[in-house]
Amino acid sequence: MLGIDRSADLGRNENMKKLIWFAVLLAGCRQHHWNTFDGTELRVPVHRVDLDVPPAADTATLPSAVVAESPGGAPKPVVPDRGGAVSTVNGALEDVYFGYDRFDLSTEALDALRRDASLLCAILAEFPGLRVVIEGHCDERGSAEYNLGLGDRRARRAEAVLKEFGVPADVADVISYGKETPVCTEAREECWQKNRRAHIQVK
User: Fold this and answer.
1) 15 lies in which domain range?
2) CATH number at residue 162
3) For residues 175 and 18, which has the higher predicted lDDT (pLDDT)?
4) What is the pLDDT of residues 41-55, one digit of tens each?
5) d(Cα 7, Cα 23) in Å, to the nearest integer?
6) Nearest of 135, 139, 143 to residue 179 by alpha carbon
7) 158/100 same-domain check
8) What is the pTM of this model?
C-alpha cells in the first residue's frame, strides 16, 4: 500500500496561519485624518489600547495588535499619545470673530466652526474624557459688566453651532472673559476686531 505524504499540506496550512495573523496585526492600527484651517491634512497615528489595564498587568492579556517588542525582546503595550494629539488639535483650532456689539456669526465664522467641529469630533472619539472650553471675548469699549454678558453670549452662540455640527452636547464648558484678556491692546479697529472673538480649546 502506498504511503501518503502530508508534509506539503501541513506547510500550506502553516503559511495560511501566518498570513491570517499578519492581517490581524495590521487591522489593529489606524490613523485619524483631520483637515486643518489651511486645507492640509493632519495624520495622527493612533494605536488603540485598553487604558484600564494596570501598568503591571501581564501583556499577554493585551491584543497582539497593541503589543510592541522592546530592544530587550520583552513585549510592552503601545499607548495612545493623548498629549500630542491635544497639542496638535489646539494648534489647528480657529478663533471665530464677531462684529461690534454683536454675537451673530458671519459665513466665515460658521465655516471656521465647521472645521473646528471636525477636529473636535475626531479627538473626542479617541479620548472621550476630554473637555472643550469655549471662551467669549470682547474689545475694550463698554463697561466690564456689559462685556462679560456679551462675551458669554458669543461663547454660547459658538457652542450651539458646534453642537449642530456634531460635537457632543455634554463636553463643552463656556466661560466669558469680557474685555479682560485682549490679544491686541492698541486703540484702533484692526486691533479691536481681533479681540471680539470666541476661542476654543481642548483640555
Assistant:
1) 7-80
2) 3.30.1330.60
3) 175
4) 444 444 443 444 344
5) 25
6) 139
7) yes
8) 0.62
